[in-house]
Amino acid sequence: MKPMKFRATDTILPLLLAAAGAVSIVSWIQQGSGRELRVRVPGLDRPAGASAEVAEVQQAPVAGQPVAGDGVPSVVAGQWPGFRGPNRDAISTDSTPLIRSWPDAGPSVLWSLDLAEGYASAAVSDGRVYVLDYDEQAATDTLLCLSLDDGREIWRNSYPVLLTRNHGLTRTVPVIVGDYVIALGPRCHLACWDAASGTCHWLIDLVLEHGATVPRWYAGQCPLVDQDRLIVAPGGEAMLIALDYKTGEVIWKSPNPRGWTMTHASIVPMEFEGRRSYVYCGSGGVAGIAADDGSLLWDSTVWPEQFASSPSPVMVPDGRIFLSSGYGSDIGSLMLKLKNSGERIEAETLFTLTPKQFNAEQQTPIVRDGHLYGVRKRGGGQLVCLDFNGKELWDSGSDKFGHGPFLFADGLFFALDDKGVLTMAEATTAGYKQLGQHEVFPHGHDAWGPLAIVGGRLILRDMTRMVCLNLAQNEKPNE
Q: What is the pTM of this model?
């Protein structure tokens, strides 16, 4: 093979052309290009006439004035002041005796109400029911205050926000504290309302003011009031923040060293070695934040968000935390145990369960009688009883609930399945026994909103309807 020959023009000509190009660029910069070059700012490349829309996006909305209805608060006593009830554990503390059997027509229906698509559910106090709805015609997040007796509106108030259907529109449960009701809207608007009149005391946009990122299916986190403070997890600048619930003023911000963003999970209080903290599942793992000053006590990346995180962490005695998810093919649930090493709290993994053993996609398991009760996604949604070592004692067999909600009240287990069928059962460590079933929502679907019960009144919903049933023993059942 003959050696290759190179001509001088093979190298000289490209170099000359490159030099000429560089001279042209320098000359163009020195003389000016004929128009001003600016760094691109998102939103400024909108068509002419869109400046007003841009301005609206960059500032928080303003709430309107309350609109009074003809509803009257019920005299029925009892509280279900927020997500999962008085102790945030889905166990009713109400002493009202409940009926143990239902007539063929099912429990008495006290009232029903059409709602926008979603899963936002009720908080109840002083005979009033609070639900954060969405008014599609007016394009507003709308807080409804209803009578527990008949569902009629006592008042409503709202603020403007544009939503598009995103597998439902609404997802959260308000929290009631004293004379205040606090709700987190789909696009992370945090608002405080007067419980009696509906006047808005304050409204914060967590995206604009705290750098939050709206989760993929809108906000699903339910606000927490603990030790007279409002606790929310915006992600972004701070993993968690504590606010004065009366004014909205920031008390502390926790660090967010890993840059985790908001998930659909809610915050849970925890006591460990005499110090109160808040446990939260962020996008990259799970962490504990000190209740007194917002310092980061511990974090772990063994439980990152896999597509979505919805169930809240479950506190188990002796510094243990049970975590579950419906996504992922290897781990369905996991038990952590906190240990104090002297310099730092460490979270070690005690055991993991496969999705076939136990996983939960939406609803948070319940701790009762020294055991865990949860609905497993695999196999259609059986109720499962586990000991704290992850051993299964029993499942509910042919009774399956899909992604539906559940709670305990008066020693009974109540669960709503995906299609709106309500089941009443005895569920103890000894086993599961169905006592009754009734189709509450004919042709129902996506009945996933958390349940609430006060004075024997069970409030439940499917995708577009809310119903209040009377389960109290001292009331007449349907004929």
A: 0.86
